[in-house]
Amino acid sequence: MKLIERTRLCLDAIAQRNPVLHAMISVNPAALEDAAAIEQAGRRGNLPGAGLIVSLKDNIDTRGLRTTMGSAFFADNVPSRDAPVVSRLRQAGALIIGKANLHEFAFGGTTQNPHHGLARNGWHDEAVPGGSSGGSGSSVAAGMCDVSLGTDTGGSIRIPAALNGVAGLRPTHGAVPNTGCFPVSDAFDTIGPLARTVAEVARVYEIIAGYDAGDSCSGAEPIRSWSQAFAQGVRHLRIGVPRDWCLGDDTDPEVASRLVDALHTLRELGADVRHISLREAPFAQQHLMPVLAADAAAVHAARLVETPEVFGPDVLDRLLIGKNTSSETYVGALRFRERWLRELDATFRDLDVIITPTVPITAPLARDAAQMLATTRALSRFTSAWAMAGVPALSVPIGFAANGLPVGMQLVAPRWRDATVLALGAHYQQATDHHLRRPAGFPSALG
Questions:
Q1: 240-282 pLDDT, tens per residue?
Q2: So which residues are the signal peptide here (predicted)?
């Protein structure tokens, strides 16, 4: 199917479902013209992103297209240039269809945005899509795009991916440039892709990754080929599962059951799956959250003094917690991070991948997620540790609970081994069909 025809289908999906899902804040008014231009350019050569229709979380700058940060402060902000990741997508032949909804300033896990719409899950109109990249996850699940770029500070790509039944990668910190993206915490922020298949995630990752001199956190490490890693198969991989941490009483039994099934599939593919212990992992979240809150409060210091009433109430409350974070708490978190990194380095000497559920529950109903901070804590219990370590972490769909909502598993590898988790996730999808299911209302012609 031609790109212009697929673009029409995505625009139709936005028109039909966005009034309920609130997945998109803005739509590219020139999307059809851009599709025609990309098709014409594609006839003159192969482009690695040709045919991809992409939504962008609305904290990533787009030239000439409104970028709000999900806030009232930037409601009319129109950047004069693209973020590097957007430039790379355009140069690769991808079509930008619009800007996806997010938790205000990317600082919460539910995407109940008081300024741009209370976002909903692509599989259930009354459930939250997760956050803070909730619109990214929902827009992919609902067929409004092929791929979305989100951002992840403590779990904000992986949580929406798991709750919306799509794949999502938090890359190695520094692999993808953050230039042109509004920060929460420079030490932990990263941009990454969400898509219906791991192969599409990998394709976009390799387009947007690479050094950028404008980003002080950007790394110059070569980007490894995920297809080469895929060609090596699964039989050489040593996989560790911290069962005591992630499969205990605090994890929904159906989530645990789906993960056990997924581990059985990986064993059948030839992987060496074993039980491991991670002493520090259960404490990572409680140390990461105060650091993120303090860093975010520093970003918004002037706004907190001059116009605090412009923030949504839940984000304002969380920023004030950050403003009042003590130096002892902040330094204690940094000392914890040093211990955690040492433990993780030692663990990865004998392992290639660590696996947990992405999220310990399925998507909460919006009426049950009114306490944003408590919901965010619940959703990010298994994602925070890997954000603190700066390692790559991929969420992959592994089935559905009895309530019809998706479940995801999280694949984690050492820094700069993004290709390892992408290859393993793609092998898992080749052996299963969970990622082929579509929610009601999905445009069937998109496949």
A1: 999 999 999 999 999 999 999 999 999 999 999 999 999 999 9
A2: none
**Buried-state track 204-222, b at ≥16 Cβ within 10 A, e below 16:** bbbbbbbebeebebbbeee
How far apart are the C-alpha atoms of 229 and 211, rounded to whole Å? 21
Closest CA to 18 of 28, 26, 29, 7: 26
Residue whose entry in the numeric block shows the structure tokens 């992630």: 246
CA atoms within 13 A on the CB side of 106: 34
Task: Provide the residue range defining the domain that includes 190.
Answer: 3-282+331-446
What does the chain come to in residues?
447
Whether the bond into 132 is cis, omega within 30 of 0: yes
d(CA 325, CA 296): 11
Element (H, E) at 12: helix 3-21
- 447 pLDDT band, cuts 50/70/90, is confident
Task: Answer yes or no: is pLDDT of 44 > 60.
Answer: no
| CATH assignment at residue 370 | 3.90.1300.10
Assess contact for 216 and 200: CB atoms under 8 A.
no
Residue 408 CA to residue 137 CA, distance in Å, equals: 13
Specify if 310 maps to a domain.
no
Q: Name the strand (E) or helix (H) holding 273.
A: strand 272-275
Query: Mind telling me the catalytic residues?
Result: 57, 132, 156
Number of other CB atoms surrounding residue 317 within 10 Å? 12
Contact 203, 223 (CB under 8 A): no
pLDDT > 70: percent of the chain? 99
